[in-house]
Amino acid sequence: MKSALKKTSYLLGLSLLSAHLQAETLVVLAERIYTQAGPVIEAGAIVVEDGKIRQVGRQGQLRLPAGAKTLQAAVVTPGLIDARTVVGLAGYLNQPHDQDQLETSAAMQPQLRALDAFNSRERLVDWVRSLGVTTLHTGHGPGALISGQTMVRKSHGNHVDDGMMQPLAMIAAQLGPGAFGAENRSPGTRSKQIAMLRQQLIKAQEYQQKQQQAEEGKAPARDLELEALVSVLDGSTPLLITAYREQDMQSALRIAEEFGIRIVLDGAAEAYLMLDAIKAAQVPVILHPTMARQFGELENASFTTAQKLHQAGIPFALQSGYERYVPKTRVVLWEAAMAAAYGLPYEVALAAITIDAARILGIDERVGSIAVGKDADLVLYTGDPFEYTTQVSQVIINGQLVSTEAH
Amino acid sequence: MRRIALLLAGCLAGTLHAQQGPQAFVGATLLPIDGPAITNGTLLVEDGLIRAIGTNVPIPAAATVHRMDGKVIMPGLVDTHSHIGQVAGADSSAPIQPDVRALDSINSRHAGLMKAKAGGITTVNVMPGSGHLLSGQTNYLKLRNGSSVEALAIRTETGAMAGGIKMANGTNPLRASPFPGTRGKAAALMRAQLVAAKEYCDKKDSEAPPPRHIGHDALCEVFSGERIVHHHTHRHDDVLTVLRLADEFNFRVVLHHVSEGALVADAIAKAGVAASIIHIDSPGGKLEVMNLLPDNGKVLADAGVLLAYHTDDPITDSRLFLRSAAMGVRFGLDRETALRSVTLNGAKMLDLQERVGSLTVGKDADFIVLSGDPLSVYTRVEQTWVEGVKVFDLADPEQALFATGGYGAGRDQVASEVLQLEAAQ
Question: Hey, which residues does B43 pair with through a beta bridge?
């Protein structure tokens, strides 16, 4: 509770600061606006002031401020949200010095904060921003039983605190062979993974109890590792569990039930085999990139899984994920496009990288749709956003034009 | 005896084009690649070859007619660089292994072949990897129905399996000894090998020929121009090193990946060397590709370089090969060059332009049926035909599994002839 309060005041402070910096008034005219807050607006206009959306509607029905800077586009969408990435921790050079998404000295390190490793000037951050990504859920990657924390931040600003929305968003875990330890290091089997995870959560429960029951001045010594897990136990931080195979997702649901914790399934390549169980557990899914390579643990992955999650009524978002080689990052716009091409309804595909992603991350009051009062995060396109040959022409974050080179 | 074996091999390979009745594909928009689009056209196919193409093609009475209204038909795609079939060439014993053949390691039942068909690929250069200066002989395959390398091989006029040879420079082959540790050593090792092979080749047809050396034999085919060098290279200076070697030893070469090609586009064009490149969704991934930008294709094509895209499957997915060309257009390439870059231009890089790469009378009847514009994300490959035989059909749920993925799509495949046997029983 205390940490949740701290989080709120932090957010307030920053949003006041950024609002102060953004005084320019901007008008965006578009042939088509996908607001993700209501029906599509044809021949629409958006008025931006002080970094916020002040008006949105049909051209002619709004009072456009005289003399304001005006941008035009064929299509406008909300700023895109990458629901799970490692950019900023993982760098494009892919050399040891720019790969901070995974620390391998221990199997479980929930105390590792994403904000201590985020490089805001990383070229991959620039790259995804130029392709419409305005909000990043980034942080520690897959590869360990518990690899560390994630955070939510806008994709613009040179200081890690600039545009910070959630310094602690989730704690990243992984089940299955992808998180086995190197040679003779535990965990070496699935059963060992679960045993280690359960034991650690039980330890955190005991730590939590001792803290709660301690008399004034006699609280147990602070343990950053257990403290992080207490935030999972008390419900303030979801455990983001990467799992691709059906059996590993079943293990994740079993853990969630045993400890009564909030989890988010990440990857979830075989989710289509267990839609009922995921739905019954009310667990949201951050699905692997549509174009993720279909081999190894993802050998049964399908371009149509997003569509099946949608049909089942399971809340889900799309992500760029983690890539160990090339492309060093994927681009959520293109992953959503591929899902749409393989049967996911058009606006649902767009929602999976805007408003639905915002809801899973708990940031939908500020971003994810084009509505009065929300952050002015907008993407302008030369045509259908999903089409291969359409370009992103401009990107706006907090009312500020941050990308003007067509991509 | 040898002739009989060759003949047999030819039959197995289907290069003798089994007798087929005429088939007419009617009503589609035809994109011949070597000419303008034909709306409401007819493609006439017989005995595995294209017999006629146009708007006023007389349809023989005996022809099977396939209505293709609203569809787009274009040549089967040519992928100049792929690793489907679990191919593995050279091992870790030496940096240069021209004796090793890709064909001896290809698993023709690998799901990758089915996925490539689902992506519209009909001709593919299956290559060993890039961790060696020379990792072996490559294999040019047609993705026919069949479950042996013999059944898939493209044959030369002598009946041999057609292929090139794979070389690489830059950081991939730099490893512990006996591999090179520097670029200078890499070039020196390759030059020494080529010098030795040249001496062998010069004496091969003399009265006192040297003992047979199968690695040198492959390089003799490189010197004679029968076997094209497919050279992995990224950095601009590595590209120039390839051009220098090709000039010194007078071999035919296609540059592959060419990530910094834009920096030396004029030199590549001046050398008359072709570039087969890859589209990657973001910059970086390793140091020597840090400057790979998505407009590489445009810059090379503008400089006059013959341009192709490749999948490098599994680096990019064979089923999304058309996407590479489309992304080229997104970043400045013209549509016509983009479509050539996945068809005719690739065929030229494999010496197969007389047989595949365009819808031209007399060429192999390799083509794909698309639901719409080949450069649109919404377009699906609905059918793939090789030599007049349908090898992929999206309407068949068993085959559609490979187009989308799903449970079991990654497993090795039961051959079509086994399925036919089962059906017959």
Answer: B25, B53
- Rg of chain B, C-alpha, whole Å: 21
Structure tokens at A18: 């950024």
Chain B CB within 8 Å of residue A119 CB: no
Give residue limits of the domains in chain A: 1-78+369-407, 80-367
CB contact under 8 A, B282 and A325: no
ipTM of this predicted structure? 0.93
User: CATH assignment of B2-75+363-405?
Assistant: 2.30.40.10
Q: Do the Cβ atoms of B282 and A328 come within 8 Å?
A: yes
Q: How far is B111 from chain A (nearest CA, A)?
A: 10
Q: Is B314 on the interface with A (CB under 8 A)?
A: yes
Q: Does A302 sit within 8 Å of B282, measured CB to CB?
A: no
User: Chain B neighbours among A 232-271 (CB < 8 Å)?
Assistant: 270
Residue B14 has pLDDT above 90, yes or no: no
The answer to whether the CB of A326 falls within 8 A of the CB of A283 is no
Residue range(s) occupied by CATH 3.20.20.140 in chain B: 77-349
b/e map of B326-340 (b: 16 or more CB within 10 Å)?
bbbbbbebeeebbbb
User: Nearest residue of A to residue B295 by CA position?
Assistant: A407
Minimal-distance CA residue of chain B relative to A344: B378
pLDDT per position as a tens digit, A198-213: 999 999 999 999 999 9
CB contact under 8 Å between B315 and A388, yes or no, is no
Class for domain B77-349, per CATH? alpha beta
Determine the number of helices (DSSP H) and then strands (DSSP E) in chain B. 13, 17
Residue A10 confidence class, pLDDT cut points 50, 70, 90: very low
Residue pLDDT, tens place only, B63-88: 999 999 999 999 999 999 999 999 99
Q: What fold does the segment set A1-78+369-407 form as a domain?
A: Urease, subunit C; domain 1 (2.30.40)
Summarised one tens digit per residue, pLDDT across range A260-288 is 999 999 999 999 999 999 999 999 999 99
